[in-house]
């Protein structure tokens, strides 16, 4: 009889273990984003100070032997100057693009852009190399929340050309409706600044 109890006990414990393993894990927005972003091949650098952002930007440029970056954002130009990085304001397929974004999408690791960053350019017409500066306050749960955030933030003057980079391994294709006609695979570095 003891043998049956031991067998039954071990069987019931393993059932509990299976049940625990099957429960969905709920991660915080930042943990979820980082998990998905890294799994897609993105390169992630967490920064707690502007000095760290500048140091990491300089390291990225030096590590890749890039002579300059394209930058159209006035605030980011100041960071590039401090990082001793040459900049240009004309888009060029051979020059990495240093930019901000609209939102970071936690449930899939995507990065949402608009005409505020891209102008009228399609993602496919831009360089394969992106360096994105974002803050933790830009994290949203999903694409719907990101689009709502854009609509709310830019009331009356909603930007156009809303698209996202969803793959961080070059030459990978995606069927996302936001990226129709765009090759959105980019070699992407994310400088995530803790602002909360």
UniProtKB/TrEMBL annotation:
What region holds the LUD domain?
81-191
Lineage top rank: taxon: Bacteria
What Pfam family does this protein match (any one)? LUD_dom
Protein name listed in UniProt: LUD domain-containing protein
What taxonomic ancestry is recorded?
Bacteria, Pseudomonadati, Bacteroidota, Flavobacteriia, Flavobacteriales
